[in-house]
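Worked Example 4.2. Read the sequence first, then its structure tokens.
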Amino acid sequence: MLVIGDLFQLEPVLDGIIFKDLGAGYGPLAPNLWKDYFTMIELTEIMRQKDDLQFAQMLNRIREGKLLDEDIALLESRIVKDPNDQSLLDITHLYPTNKEVESHNTTIFNNCSSTDKVYVEAIDVILGDVQTKVKSKCLACISNEVTTNVDVEDGITNGGAIGILKYIDYRDDKSKQPSILWILFDDQQIGKNARYKNYRFYTDNIDRSWTPIFAIKRQFALYPHFAHVQAAREQFPLRLSAARTIHKSQGSTMSKAVLKLPATARSHMPYVALSRVTSLNGIYIKELNADKISQRKDVKDEMKRLRESQIEPLSYINPALKPDCIKIAFLNSRSLHAHINDVKHDHDLLNMDIIALCETRLVSGDSNLAYDLPDYKMVRNDQEQTENRRPPHGMILYINQRFVNEITNTILNTEDNFESISVSRHGAQYVFLYRSPSLTLEQTLAKARRISENLYTSQPVVVMGDFNIDISDQKNEHVIKELEDIFQCKQIVTEITTNYGTTIDLVFTNTTAICSIIESLFSDHKIVFLHHTDSDNIMLRNTDNENTDGYQQLVID
């Protein structure tokens, strides 16, 4: 189980913080699973404020309760002279309480110059056989929360989807209730599926970038007074968001915000409010109350405990590998232009000395700068672009800078449905290739023979790539044996290499190198990981000795 979060954020509403022992009922007798089973990996790279280092460092001090005098002075410099400045009304306001939020939103609504305003009342129904007198009492106690998760996968989520109401659409002449509310979301990825699925509701006056929001119905019990009674409410899952509570803003990123920080000690709330904004210049403070900025002691103690026992960053790569070990990875990237940021943050790949990626789908117009990895030299082998779209294949090789001067004899090969990159280092020969499944067996073996013509099997040889030949299928056994004969190497991958249970990414070598499989976080192929040293033994083909699986060891001095 992987749990992601920040203990220095706000405690859940109507719930306890995760590391505390249970206190109610039989809770004190229960084990604390959090402390028994969870360890921490602390992420240290700041993303939201990455372009404002001074602000990011100040936020970290606020988060940890280590506020400096100069930090307070910096925050004071962002206090607005006139809290009623009309130019601030277009900026999202964050308040500590719902009451302040409702007051601000109501003011904005009342002052709105648009004449197209409507009050949409929820339609409430009591379900089941309930007396009329009880039914009227029940309806009077239903709360007025109007947000919900409409479609999580489409981004239309509670508190996460913010936009402008562009049009109130009445489709029923006999009803005063709107049929559809059309929203222009700030993030155009939000509601993309809804716009596609509801294409039939668009008319000439409805912009295609607007997302339709319909009234939804939810059923619930009327706690606490009428817990035995079920009610249904139909309403539009929207409410004004010119202002939001600081609690509701958690998870949001804003370029600007007007903040009123709490006048009483509300642990972690000032940090949450300030850290929603990407830069200090985007913050406008109505009330600072710097003396009320605080952190919970139990949270600080728990973070201290977790840090003292935290584990190393998740990585498959064994730090105990020999210093002279060469680490090589091959992966079908499934379109590098879509996953270059994933590659740049993949801890396993960036631990490699050589990274080979296929199905990159790059074109000549893609700049090297966009695909550069720090401390690596890039060798591109792009497939020729046809028509006005990206080609299906292409390869790229990243070589660690400490090996660059040792790499020789770089050979690029690009043919229809087949491509490869070959390099040499200290006599060892490495071939990385991609074979399309559309190639026939005869064509595949012919291309393998051409590669073998440049291989010296008295020296270490590694041929690895996406062969699209599933070795878990017994009918392919003879193909693998023919390839082993051609390369004078043994195929050493034994685990599945895709998410579909197939083993199509293969390694042929005449060395005692070790091969493993690592899960990829972004591709449906897995990373094929090979490591060996310059002193590895070479396995020479020996057709007379069946007990050694056709190979014998030759120790190279």
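Now turn to a second chain, presented in exactly the same format:
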Amino acid sequence: MFRRWLPPGAAVFYIVALTLAFPPYNQAWAVLLFLAPLVKWAFATPRWKCFLLTGFAAGCGAWFFILIWLRHIYPPWGWLGLVLLSGYLALYLVGWLAAVRWAAPRLQGASRARRLLGLIALAGWWVVLDWLRGWLFSGFPWLPLAAAFWEFPILLQPIAWTGQWGISFLIVLFNLGLVCGTGAESSADAGAPPRKFFWPARFGVEIMVPVLLFFGAMVLAMALQHSSSRPEFPTPILRVGIVQPDIPATLKWVESEEDKNWQKLWTLTQPFTYREGSKNNVDLVLWPEAAPPFPVQGPHAAPYRKMLTQLDSTLQVPILFGAIGEAYPKSGGTKPAGDFDEVFLVRPGISVEDAKALLGKTVNLQPGALAGGFAEEFYAKRHLVPFGEYVPFRSLLPFIGQVVPFDTLPGEHAQTIPIMPQGGHILHAGPLVCYEDIFANLARDQARAGADFLVVVTNDDWFGTEGGSLQHAAHSVLRAIETRRPVVRCGNNGWSGFIDQDGDAFPLTKYDGTIQSSWILRARGTTYFQGTGILSIYVNPQFDGQETFYVRFGDWFVGLSALLALGGYLVLRKTNTIAGQI
């Protein structure tokens, strides 16, 4: 009877556990168990077809519930996208389960050393597939397993060396160890028959290794982190005024709503006007993605740029913001070549003499380098959303033109934007637009380009007010630790906040009519609101100017995982299997 209910039970457990592990439920413990029933079933050597189809159903179900917020995007198209994307992502689970099913009978009678190598190979194969998920067909690396620990960044410190892949590897290895490292001994070392179906009390090397690796890596990471001779006391660098206009995405570009949307944005910004001694004084105002309802670059942008420059002169505070920029027409053409999704800085201006007074007379500044108006530097979004900002194979899918009438153009390279706080030195902001913070390589590029802190401007209003924007914010915690750069986020309706270099998050929340920033585990209220808040950004001097191992060497752990997977395959291929279990 138990065996009959194991397939659907394992699938349901996978769906429920993986859904609970991520926002909005944040039950991180579930990610340590989610694979165990499916792995246990694989060691019972089920029929291949039944096993893989059940795995596919489990993957579809889990992603369907995790990404349920997709239904809000261009309904009913969002429902179609949700179903198709869930099915596509489930294929990666099927690819991993196929390897588990192939390896299971070969591990049953293997020696402890060979069995441990097989489990390490399977954990490596998960990492390789997860990496492929972030690259194939433009890539969608949403919610790697490491993101489940976003509220507990002390557990994520090793990713400054391994990237997110190191924690995902250990999570999978722990799940495998729960099955293969508990129960009756079945290795060739003990000369015993295959372990029983139920789990008697036993803890073997297969479960001890991932536990020791995890805590060993965490302790080593923290020891190396605090080995610097530099002071570890946080140093304030910036006060940022966050503006959440909460403009509905469906009304954002409606022509009749443009004036109303602009007035809302500017009205929310005005309290940050510089006044001597005011508690609302900030060094920088941050708007979300595509904040102004008009282009600020290109052939039609001149009057809007002039207006923004004049308004910022009254504000007397620089504004960093996302906006649409038009590409100039191609030679001989009359229409713009397309739009960019960009980040700009407009500033009230500072003379070279004032800059030298602040930075020291020996500093070499070109005339006009810090002049008022739009900064010369700007950033264009590099990784566009397929079927949202462009349509792959548009000529073959003409009906999608009703939803995405034109293609946005991608930027070409990383670009930092210099900002000078009152009485401080120049800081370089590394912008990421929309969902670019889910791509570790883009944050890494900005760190290598010289960013002192990362800035994420996004419009998650498309996701509704469920778990979408919280899931999105979890990736910024990973990027902060991987690069050891603070992250400042500004969303149209949330999640806005600050994440320090250790990964501690401080969201802006509205509770009992008050907007405040507090540590995420103590935060009360909702991140979804219309209003403004102030974030105090600080850095740890021991990370100043330092590049992490991950920033320097990138996804080296993926290459190591691929070698481990290949080595495990070659070893297990020669292993004798228990008769009749292939």
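Notes for the reader: The chain has two domains: 2-228+557-573, 235-386+407-540. Residues 186-190, 195-201, 365-369 have pLDDT under 50 and may be disordered.
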